[in-house]
Amino acid sequence: MGLFSAPLARRQVAVALSGGVDSSVAAHLLTKMNMDVLGIHMSNWDYHGDDDGSRDTKCWEGDWKDAQAVARHLDIPIFHTSFEQDYWNSVFEPYITNLSQSITPNPDVDCNRYIKFGVLKEYLRKRFDIDTLATGHYARLYDGSDDRTQVPLCLEEFLDSNPASADFLDMEQPILMAARDVRKDQSYFLCGVSANALRGVMFPLGDLNKGSTKDPSQGDMHSESVRDIAQSARLPTASKRESMGICFIGKRRHAEFVNEYIEPKSGQEMKATCINVDDGSVISSFYPSETPSLAYATIGQGAKISGAAQKWFVVDKPDAKTVLVCPGTHHPALYSDSFIVEGVNWIQGIPPKLPLKAQCRIRHLQPLNECEVRATKDGRGVEVVLEKPFRGIATGQVCGIYLKGLVCLGGGAITTRGATYHALNKELPASLHPAGNNDLSTAKRK
């Protein structure tokens, strides 16, 4: 051996380059940290099966070209891969099956759990011998199993002000936290990812704002935003618009797209009926295949009933032939203050001591609601009791559980909704229905 030690090898990290500005900036920041960066681009949908002409321009081709342009600009290698079969089996097929059973799934949560932080990480390990994956998610993560990471200031402050939380947070396990930019926080979509899958994961954008902000609660108003960094670095995607919706659906409406993949029931199709939850009267009848927007509407969504003089909203779907509806967006039949979650993914591997005072949300960026999380009597899940009722609770929706708006403990799918305020004959808190319990302000004027 010589007198001098060999220089430490640069840390290898793969960055998921989607072709958007967020992942582009994440890759740029990693190169500035003197890491050995490799770009990886996924396309997980079989576009060859879409021969109806509704998706003439394959969005993944444009994204792939943009990802390649960013890689060239940053002088990093990039590879393309596809997990079409994995995506179909683990994400899309369960999604369609659940919708056909009037369950409201969240494919983004499943995609993160099974694809991005599942098969992709395994692929990187086997193909490139890389154990570190970075993405453009707006979230923060402390990985206590990695000696190279330091406890972030936000977590230090959280533990100092909440000493009781330190008793059950294992600092040697990954701790998932909300992003600094609460308007873009994506920790909810990550609540289904296990601790093992989060090891070796980096979220370079967690402490950044997406765009400039004049809101002092977002921190230093003079700090660089993701858009600022993209412009300064002259990234090819600096001005690219943010993608919305599901790419492979194309220009079609979601319900029409879903309708193509749900197999019709054998025999003659039965008509479904919309029934007024107040008096049991039939509002309308329809064939599900002809009115997919109503057939696949979830609880709380508007029921698009042809010819109706006022707006109706979906309350429940007790069976395939019945849709319970109510008049007005603030009807008590749309609100419940409890639900059951089974199969909770506790990110730290073990559940905290229950009951637990926490916060939760059942939709992306929904304001967090104070709640108490209790163990169910059968031990298969938890009951979440809300301080204020949520509107439109549906089975299949994912509940993310938080501490003090920062630490995401995990989450799981709702299996049972508690009784509605209508069923309990309870009045809603006045703060939830400024226009009245049964708001008919959206009714068409005659």
UniProtKB/TrEMBL annotation:
<comment type="similarity">
    <text>Belongs to the MnmA/TRMU family.</text>
</comment>
<dbReference type="GO" id="GO:0002143">
    <property type="term" value="P:tRNA wobble position uridine thiolation"/>
</dbReference>
<feature type="domain" description="tRNA-specific 2-thiouridylase MnmA-like C-terminal">
    <location>
        <begin position="336"/>
        <end position="414"/>
    </location>
</feature>
<dbReference type="InterPro" id="IPR046885">
    <property type="entry name" value="MnmA-like_C"/>
</dbReference>
<dbReference type="InterPro" id="IPR014729">
    <property type="entry name" value="Rossmann-like_a/b/a_fold"/>
</dbReference>
<comment type="function">
    <text>Catalyzes the 2-thiolation of uridine at the wobble position (U34) of mitochondrial tRNA(Lys), tRNA(Glu) and tRNA(Gln). Required for the formation of 5-taurinomethyl-2-thiouridine (tm5s2U) of mitochondrial tRNA(Lys), tRNA(Glu), and tRNA(Gln) at the wobble position. ATP is required to activate the C2 atom of the wobble base.</text>
</comment>
<dbReference type="GO" id="GO:0061708">
    <property type="term" value="F:tRNA-5-taurinomethyluridine 2-sulfurtransferase"/>
</dbReference>
<protein>
    <recommendedName>
        <fullName>tRNA-5-taurinomethyluridine 2-sulfurtransferase</fullName>
        <ecNumber>2.8.1.14</ecNumber>
    </recommendedName>
</protein>
<dbReference type="Pfam" id="PF03054">
    <property type="entry name" value="tRNA_Me_trans"/>
</dbReference>
<dbReference type="Pfam" id="PF20258">
    <property type="entry name" value="tRNA_Me_trans_C"/>
</dbReference>
<dbReference type="InterPro" id="IPR004506">
    <property type="entry name" value="MnmA-like"/>
</dbReference>
